[in-house]
Amino acid sequence: MHFGFQTVTEEERREKIYQVFENVAKKYDVMNDSMTLGIHRVWKDILVHKMNPCPGTLLLDVAGGTGDIAFRFINYVRSVRQRQLQRKLKHHQNLSWQEIFESYQKDEFNSLGDSQVVVCDINREMLKVGKQKAEHLGYSEGLSWVLGNAEELPFDDDKFDVYTIAFGIRNVTRIDLALQEAYRVLKPGGRFLCLEFSHVSNPLLSRLYDLYSFQVIPVLGEVIAGDWSSWAQVKEKVKTPLDVGCMGGVINRSLWTKHHHQVDHSCHLDKTFVNFF
Ligand code: SAM
């Protein structure tokens, strides 16, 4: 396996990736905003809109890092519940004032109902920053944080309605194993949503992106996080096995045959995803 210009073993690659995220965890969010000019927020919003979770959805966000997808999921489900409750309140004839008062008292407007989201990440530091952020932003209900490897998930079979992985699959050493695990933990009919960089075929755009990645990103890393090498490595890591550009995909587990997660990881993304954003 190539990591930058060197050939490294799977174990070395896993270790390097771990170190990169351990080093950058505290500055990860601010770097994400500056490196993408905030565009990653839009991509993540689109992912959650595509998911369109209903109250009661059980979501697993793998490689969830500092919780961006989980927080968006919570906001989305809350807003669906608020709309439902507002509709109920509009028809006052069906609700007594006592019931309306109780709804407010129980803070039902902000409740997630039966929905839950589990953020799973291999990196303790990223999870730590995520938990602090959740506390600060007031997210706690229905949210849990689990240390775990996408290639060997610590969850039962057929458990989740939705599995998401945002800018995470490129970091996983054995993508075939991660996909098998996604398949295993999803309920039949559950959905797999992936947000990831992909190839840019336009040579001019590709050149510009390379310039940005190799010249600008490490400088931003040094200025903002005081760490040149981790951000230089992030780009090298992104080069394998995927390249640049952003894509997302949704697949329903029922459509996902065994063949799909056994194909070679260098081509599985194109073959697996049925809908592109
Ligand atoms: N999903 C978050 C987001 O979009 O902001 C974080 C993405 S960050 C680029 C990649 C994350 O993948 C890191 O938090 C890293 O620790 C995690 N990661 C890398 N390898 C992993 C693995 N094998 N299993 C689970 N998480 C992994």
TrEMBL record:
<dbReference type="GO" id="GO:0032259">
    <property type="term" value="P:methylation"/>
</dbReference>
<dbReference type="InterPro" id="IPR029063">
    <property type="entry name" value="SAM-dependent_MTases_sf"/>
</dbReference>
<comment type="subunit">
    <text>Component of a multi-subunit COQ enzyme complex, composed of at least COQ3, COQ4, COQ5, COQ6, COQ7 and COQ9. Interacts with PYURF; the interaction is direct, stabilizes COQ5 protein and associates PYURF with COQ enzyme complex.</text>
</comment>
<protein>
    <recommendedName>
        <fullName>2-methoxy-6-polyprenyl-1,4-benzoquinol methylase, mitochondrial</fullName>
        <ecNumber>2.1.1.201</ecNumber>
    </recommendedName>
</protein>
<dbReference type="GO" id="GO:0110142">
    <property type="term" value="C:ubiquinone biosynthesis complex"/>
</dbReference>
<dbReference type="GO" id="GO:0031314">
    <property type="term" value="C:extrinsic component of mitochondrial inner membrane"/>
</dbReference>
<feature type="binding site">
    <location>
        <position position="121"/>
    </location>
    <ligand>
        <name>S-adenosyl-L-methionine</name>
    </ligand>
</feature>
<dbReference type="InterPro" id="IPR004033">
    <property type="entry name" value="UbiE/COQ5_MeTrFase"/>
</dbReference>
<dbReference type="GO" id="GO:0005759">
    <property type="term" value="C:mitochondrial matrix"/>
</dbReference>
<dbReference type="GO" id="GO:0008425">
    <property type="term" value="F:2-methoxy-6-polyprenyl-1,4-benzoquinol methyltransferase activity"/>
</dbReference>
<feature type="binding site">
    <location>
        <begin position="149"/>
        <end position="150"/>
    </location>
    <ligand>
        <name>S-adenosyl-L-methionine</name>
    </ligand>
</feature>
<dbReference type="Pfam" id="PF01209">
    <property type="entry name" value="Ubie_methyltran"/>
</dbReference>
<keyword id="KW-0472">Membrane</keyword>
<comment type="function">
    <text>Methyltransferase required for the conversion of 2-polyprenyl-6-methoxy-1,4-benzoquinol (DDMQH2) to 2-polyprenyl-3-methyl-6-methoxy-1,4-benzoquinol (DMQH2).</text>
</comment>
<keyword id="KW-0496">Mitochondrion</keyword>
<feature type="binding site">
    <location>
        <position position="66"/>
    </location>
    <ligand>
        <name>S-adenosyl-L-methionine</name>
    </ligand>
</feature>
<comment type="similarity">
    <text>Belongs to the class I-like SAM-binding methyltransferase superfamily. MenG/UbiE family.</text>
</comment>
<comment type="function">
    <text>Methyltransferase required for the conversion of 2-decaprenyl-6-methoxy-1,4-benzoquinol (DDMQH2) to 2-decaprenyl-3-methyl-6-methoxy-1,4-benzoquinol (DMQH2).</text>
</comment>
<keyword id="KW-0949">S-adenosyl-L-methionine</keyword>
<keyword id="KW-0999">Mitochondrion inner membrane</keyword>
<dbReference type="InterPro" id="IPR023576">
    <property type="entry name" value="UbiE/COQ5_MeTrFase_CS"/>
</dbReference>
<keyword id="KW-0831">Ubiquinone biosynthesis</keyword>
<keyword id="KW-0489">Methyltransferase</keyword>
<comment type="pathway">
    <text>Cofactor biosynthesis; ubiquinone biosynthesis.</text>
</comment>
<keyword id="KW-0808">Transferase</keyword>
